[in-house]
Amino acid sequence: SDNPGRDRQRMTEYERAATAFVEAGGAIPLPADAPANLVQTRWLLEELRVSLFAQRLGTAEPVSIQRIAKALKGA
């Protein structure tokens, strides 16, 4: 609430990643038989949300839009 412009920018970044996930066939919740790259990406999205909005919590692994794009490609 102290910097709404920054928060909106971060939300836009998250929304771009979430849209890419959906366009790749992802859904929340994921079906039990979802491909491994979508399962990984789903959790990367959660990590991205933490890294953008709750930095003090920290993330289990480094996360970025680039890492999410790479995971979606199955690399």
Describe the protein.
With 75 residues, the protein is an all-alpha fold. It has one domain. It has 3 helices and no strands. Helix 1 packs antiparallel against helix 2, helix 1 runs parallel beside helix 3 and helix 2 runs antiparallel to helix 3. The longest helix is centred in the N-terminal third of the chain and has 20 residues. The mean pLDDT is 92.
Describe, in short, the structure shown.
By secondary structure, the protein is an all-alpha fold.
Helix content: 55-70%
Rg, Cα atoms, Å: 13 Å
Shape: globular
The total strand number stands at 0
Distance between the termini: 37 Å
Structural class, judged by helices and strands? mainly alpha
Give the number of helices.
Answer: 3
Give, in order, the helices and strands.
HHH
Number of domains: 1
Largest sheet: none
Low-confidence stretches: none
Strand content: under 5%
**Mean pLDDT level:** 92
